[in-house]
Amino acid sequence: MVSVPPKVLLIEDNPGDIRLIREALAEVDEAMFHLEVAERLSVGLAYLAASQVDLVLLDLALPDSFGLETFFSVHTRAPGVPIVVLSMSEDDAMAVRAVQAGAQDYLVKGYVDRYSLLRSLRYAIERGRAEDALRRAKAELEIRVQERTAALAAANDALRAEIAERQRAEERQRFLAEVGAMLANSLDDEATLTSLVGLAVPFLADWCTVYSVSDAEPPRIMAMVHRDPAQAEGVRAITRCEPPDPSRPDPVLEALHSGRPVLLPEVPHGHLQTIAEEAQPAQLVPQLPAVSYMAVPLVARGRLVGVMSFGTAASGRRYGPADLTLAEEVACRCALAVDNARLYREARAEIGRRMQAEREAEQRRREAEVLARLAQTLSASLDLDTVLQRVAEGAWELCGSERALIMLRERGAEALVSRYQAGFPQMPYVELRVEPGKGMGGWVLATGRSLRTADYAADPRFSKDYLDRIRIAGRIAVLAVPITIGTRVEGVLYVSNHAAHPFMERDEAILLRLADYAATAIRNAQLYHAAQDELVRRTAAEAQLQASLQEKEVLLREIHHRVKNNLQIVSSLLNLQLRIVDDPHLQALLQDSRQRLQAMALIHETLYQAHDLSRVPFGMYVRRLAAQLLRAYDGAARRIRLNLEADPIALDIERATPCALIFHELLSNALTHAFPNGRSGTIDVALRRAGDQLTLAVRDSGVGVPQALEVRRPRSLGLKLISILTEQLDGTLVLEREGGTTFTLTLPLPKEITT
Q1: Domain 381-610, CATH
Q2: Per-residue pLDDT averaged across 163-183, rounded?
Q3: What is the rounded CA–CA span in Å between residue 66 and residue 70?
Q4: I want to staple 594 with a disulfide (CB 3.0 to 4.6 A). Which of 185, 266, 566, 574 is the partner?
Q5: What pLDDT is stored for residue 483 in this prediction?
Q6: CA nearest 689: which of 733, 647, 751?
Q7: Chosen CATH of 186-347 out of 3.30.1380.10, 3.20.19.10, 3.40.50.2000, 3.30.450.40
Q8: Are 434 and 407 in contact (CB under 8 A)?
């Protein structure tokens, strides 16, 4: 960065002195200073006003100024610029006074050389800069002192304000505590609110008013206090609740309608006076000075319950936001007090309603208890007399009657006869037969509708066939309801009282319920007797059927036994035939037929030995038939090992017989052909059920069947028989030749086949 040389202003009118100073600066280094020349004081002052100068070389003797006045003129125009005075030798005293007045240095003309000039200029500039820095530091220090002083003053003011605010807050808290304690001590809202506004005056207001509002009533004043009783009537005029002129809004109504507090820090003079005069004659209203005014809504539990207003006059107090906040706190507590008083009144009314409801509930409980006992008796007992007697007693108790009676139709007739009663004295109908259409009971019997009368003798709705019996008991109130099963009236339930205690709709409803219980009991008794008769009939029929089944079971076992014996006879005949036949082929045919007969005979033997003659335990049958075939083939048991796994499956005889023949053919073929020339091996038999299918697999480890053998086109009798029986059972037969021979028979099973 290139430094700018200091600018020096030379105010000198002598050309020779100007030249000497220029030459002296040139000898030093003309670039070190920038020299400007003014030959008159006025020109120099104009230059100082227009440009920034670092140093002034001033001659005190100028054409337009002389002496110290010259110095003061320049120093006044540029007080911060250092001045070096140029004087003649005879002016030393004046130069000294100039230095004392503020000049940085002085030079005597004629003795100025480059060294003294350079020294004086540098000294003056540095000293000027130092003085300028000192002035700035001093000014900054003064500013800081002023700022710190102002901060301390502000802190002191804030502290005093905080102390004052705390004192006011403590006073407000004490006031609110007194308000809360007062409101908590009583549920009499008007007396409590009068005491409350008495606390607010004069602490918060010169007068205070509390209004209450409700949905059904217009707002009303609950409490109002003024510190000056003479002003109370004027304030009462202000506190009415219907503004006559909408252009002059009432703060109370504004708070009431908007639900927000209204603050008037200063009410215009005469405003409240005008409101009061509109409410009553002006001569009755005292003069009200300009005031501050607040109106705060009373809101409790989200519900507007009233408005509280505060006003000042003679005290000269002006309300502000803090006063409004305090007023809202008071209003909040006041609202809770008003609402609590309302809740207290409502609670007392609710307690009265609940007591009435409890009495009604106790009556209903007693009704429910009696009905529950009846229901229990109805479900636990089939004794009609017991149940209907309980119904009569329940009617007597629940209707609060003097007596109760149940009349039922006479067996085989249409008339009613007395059967059950409760209370005392007896009903007039106790020893009567009531015919349909005659008297009150006959009317109910004929119409199927209930009838209630407060005076039996005077009621024109029914005939008076039995009036002579009624007159014995005097004037009575009677309630009669039908006992109906389906559409037929089976009886009538009565209750009666002295005429002074007539029956009501509630009694009729209770009696109808009891009549339903009676009808249910009668119907249950009828069903019970019918069920008893049906049970006797069915027991006899079941005994007869059981005897018939036992006879048939014995007969069926005998049939299976005889079929088995007949098959054994045929087998024995074939065995005898074998002994006289020499042809080996014929002997083999006879032996096969004999073994098939024995397989079928074993089916019938298994059946008549089983518990269920309709099902063959086929798993057990397979085991017995396999053992029988092993014994039939000489030496087979010693050289052939049989592995048999059979699920306990029961088949009907229609499936068991063909399955038995198929198994016989498969196992006998394996024993005959799989192990020729005395070879040994293994035969595996598996009987399984999977879902609704039966699988029978016979596998041998023998020499296998010829490749030319086809299951679907068999040539031998045994395979033909297997194919025919498999098709008959809707089954499938699969032949496998790996590792010997495996025949797998798969049959569908109906759902009723058991395992």
Answers
A1: 3.30.450.40
A2: 74
A3: 6
A4: 574
A5: 94
A6: 647
A7: 3.30.450.40
A8: yes
Instruction: Return the percentage of the chain with pLDDT > 90, whole number.
Output: 5
- Torsion, Cα 115 117 120 126, to 10 degrees, reads -90
Closest CA to 71 of 40, 107, 103, 112: 103
102: alpha, beta or left? (left if phi > 0; alpha if psi -120 to 50): left
pTM over the 0.70 mark = no
Sheet holding 220-226, edge to edge: 220-226, 207-212, 303-312, 292-300, 262-264
The whole-angstrom separation of Cα 700 and Cα 740 is 6
Summarised one tens digit per residue, pLDDT across range 299-317 is 888 888 888 888 888 788 8
Number of residues assigned to the chain: 755
7-144 topology per CATH: Rossmann fold (3.40.50)
Higher pLDDT, 259 or 271: 259
Same fold, 186-347 and 614-748: no
CB 608 within 8 A of CB 560: yes
What region, left, alpha or beta, does residue 152 occupy, with left being phi > 0 and alpha being psi -120 to 50 degrees?
Answer: alpha
Listed residue (54, 29, 56) closest to 44, CA to CA? 56
Residue 309: the pLDDT is 87
For residues 404 and 419, give the distance between their C-alpha atoms in angstroms, rounded to a whole number. Answer: 11
* Residue whose entry in the numeric block shows the structure tokens 């020339």: 677
Residue 492 confidence (pLDDT) above 90: yes
d(CA 291, CA 207): 11
Structure confidence at residue 1 (pLDDT):
47
pLDDT 10s digits, 465-484: 887 776 555 678 999 999 99
Hey, where are the domains in the chain?
7-144, 186-347, 381-610, 614-748
What CATH superfamily classification does 614-748 receive? Histidine kinase-like ATPase, C-terminal domain (3.30.565.10)
Of 112-126, 377-391, 562-576, minimum mean pLDDT range: 562-576
Question: Cα separation of 656 and 662, whole Å?
Answer: 10
Q: Is the pLDDT of residue 719 over 90?
A: no
